[in-house]
User: What shape does this take?
Amino acid sequence: MNDTFREFKGRIRKLDGVLVERGLVNLEFAQAVSRVHRVVRRGDRSREPSAELRGVLEHAESLARAFT
Assistant: This one.
């Protein structure tokens, strides 16, 4: 796993924490986090994160900011 992907994994863990803390009250946020996890599973962790992963991660983070 490269360093950039390690940073992304940390950001994803923070989103998971918000999801656990707040529960499934906000369906759109829960779906965005799920989408991030699907993109991570499909991606190649040895390379730089894809534009798709960057996009879905930023979208989920923006929902988290609006949600909290």
Summary: Residues 19 and 46 are 27 Å apart (CA to CA). The chain has a mean pLDDT of 88. The helical segments are 3-22, 27-42, 51-67.
